[in-house]
UniProtKB/TrEMBL annotation:
Name by which UniProt lists this protein: Fructose-1,6-bisphosphatase class 1
Name of one Pfam family that matches: FBPase_C
Predominant localisation class: cytoplasm
Example of a GO MF term: fructose 1,6-bisphosphate 1-phosphatase activity
Occurrences of domain Fructose-1-6-bisphosphatase class 1 C-terminal (ranges): 191-324
UniProt binding sites for substrate: 109-112, 201, 267
Length: 336
């Protein structure tokens, strides 16, 4: 029997600064509270739309709102956090002026999965804060993903897990429900460069750009087409679960640019989803682009900016870029 010995707090002491360690522990403690609520499910009164009332006449919150409040309260009380930005809130929340870190989070990614009892998760990113003594502003957050100090996610699936990077590989932890501790299970997660599995919401096909449509058509042709092998498709419809699958068994995930909603460059958020997941994927040996450009090189223009995402097996991500290059178009359809 394999004995897993190292708990998250011990691991953090050995692998990162006390400030980042403390912030990750705050996130981890909140994730355990969120997981407790998820386990109680309907019995905790967390399903359904926010805004209803319970029997005492109190407002009932949906779990994504509750998760947001949990994380926000915990992080703003951590003296290392200068400010926090959540996918659920319009504005950033300044915290402690002497803090050295900024934290962004998506409290419950894939939240449309809650009511159907499917996998959801919490994604986070930690950035440096450079203006100690001043109140942090949104501009402080607008740093390219390559400046992240740490990122990761907590996935609430059949078990609860944490994937974590500080820029020196990806480690995976599993929550032991008995001790309520995250325990290290793999210190070096790697993604295969090739794959025969892809993830995309194919119902958007008619809104895709030509290079992406061509790519998916090639995969669908399997061993009768130019790729000369059969591909399998999976779509959990929660980025966290689709990305976790790629970390565990490989694959390529796409939420590409589409023309479905005018003015939206993609569905996923750069600061809350794309950057933290790109950091994890790259650190595991994969690649992450908007179809053409490395996501972590993109200079953000707004805290809630949306972006097309293509990530996972390096060879597939590079092949998709080559199709865009051949067509002479950028990931957003503009001519080069
Ligand atoms: P959700 O709308 O449930 O929050 O964050 C957006 C996201 O989930 C991703 O987690 C997921 O990959 C995607 O949207 C699912 O989009 P579709 O509804 O188009 O499948």
């Amino acid at each position: 029997m394999t004995i897993f010995a190292q708990n998250l707090d011990q691991y953090l002491k050995e692998h990162t600064s006390p400030e980042i360690a403390s912030t990750v522990m705050t996130l981890a403690d909140s994730s355990i509270a969120i997981r407790d609520l998820l386990n109680k499910g309907v019995l905790a009164g967390i399903h359904g739309e926010a805004g209803g009332q319970n029997i005492q006449g109190e407002t009932q919150k949906k779990l994504d709102v509750i998760s947001n409040d949990l994380l926000l309260n915990a992080l703003t009380q951590n003296s290392n956090c200068a400010a926090v930005a959540s996918e659920e809130l319009d504005d950033i929340s300044p915290a402690n002026q002497d803090g050295t870190l900024l934290v962004t989070f998506d409290p419950l990614d894939g939240s449309s999965n809650i009511d159907i009892n499917m996998t959801v998760g919490t994604i986070f990113s930690i950035l440096p804060y450079h203006h100690q003594g001043q109140v942090a502003t949104e501009t402080d957050f607008l740093q390219a993903g390559k400046h992240q100090l740490a990122s990761g996610y907590f996935i609430y699936g059949t078990s609860t897990m944490l994937a974590l990077t500080f820029g020196a590989g990806v480690s995976m932890f599993s929550l032991d429900p008995a001790s309520r501790q995250y325990v290290l299970i793999n210190e070096r997660i790697t993604i295969s460069q090739q794959t025969a599995e892809y993830a995309i919401n194919a119902s958007n096909r008619r809104y895709w750009l030509a290079p992406l449509a061509q790519y998916i058509e090639e995969l669908a042709q399997g061993d009768t087409g130019v790729r000369n092998k059969d591909y399998n498709m999976r779509w959990v419809a929660a980025m966290i679960a689709d990305v976790h699958r790629i970390l565990v068994r490989g694959g390529v995930f796409m939420y590409p640019f589409d023309t479905k909603i005018a003015g939206k460059a993609g569905k996923l958020r750069l600061m809350y989803e794309a950057n933290p997941m790109s950091f994890i994927i790259e650190q595991a040996g994969g690649a992450s682009t908007d179809g053409v450009q490395r996501i972590m090189d993109i200079e953000p223009t707004g805290i809630h900016q949306r972006i097309p995402v293509v990530l996972g097996a390096k060879q597939e991500v590079e092949y998709i870029k080559s199709l865009h290059d051949q067509a002479g178009i950028l990931a957003n359809g503009e001519k080069i």
